[in-house]
């Protein structure tokens, strides 16, 4: 490696995701499931992410099918409609992915600083 200050000042950018069965779990599905957990509704989580309910439902169901796991339970509500909650497995996936992503970011920042600073 040369000591060449002619290179531009770069910023770090990267994405991480998990793969299983040809389907990935990354920030998009993480944000959707986090929204369901926080808002108690697939429809509200989808709206918060500016996506259709149908697209959100499809992403959740495809992940459940591919991974043979139930991530979300829905229930029929009264006057305000239904709602949704994450299963314990869905909550555990969020916790572990959040931890993994945080550690990956810390490591990437450290590597970046060692190479580009």
UniProtKB/TrEMBL annotation:
Keyword Heme attributed: no
GO molecular function: DNA binding; DNA-binding transcription factor activity
Keywords: DNA-binding
Record's signal peptide: none
Limits of the HTH lysR-type domain: 35-91
InterPro entries cross-referenced by the UniProt entry: LysR_HTH_N (IPR000847), Molybdate_resp_trans_reg (IPR051815), WH-like_DNA-bd_sf (IPR036388), WH_DNA-bd_sf (IPR036390)
Superkingdom of origin: Bacteria
Presence of keyword Transmembrane helix: no
One Pfam family from the record: HTH_1
Protein name: DNA-binding domain of ModE
Species whose genome carries this gene: Desulfocucumis palustris
Lineage: Bacteria, Bacillati, Bacillota, Clostridia, Eubacteriales
């Amino acid at each position: 490696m040369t000591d060449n200050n002619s290179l531009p000042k770069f910023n770090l950018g990267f994405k991480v995701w998990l793969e299983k069965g040809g389907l990935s779990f990354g920030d998009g599905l993480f944000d959707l499931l986090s929204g369901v957990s926080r808002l108690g509704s697939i429809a509200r989580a989808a709206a918060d992410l500016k996506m259709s309910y149908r697209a959100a439902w499809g992403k959740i169901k495809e992940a459940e099918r591919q991974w043979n796991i139930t991530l979300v339970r829905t229930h029929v509500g009264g006057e305000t409609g239904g709602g949704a909650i994450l299963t314990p497995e869905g909550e555990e996936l969020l916790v572990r992915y959040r931890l993994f992503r945080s550690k990956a970011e810390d490591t990437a920042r450290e590597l970046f600083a060692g190479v580009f600073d």
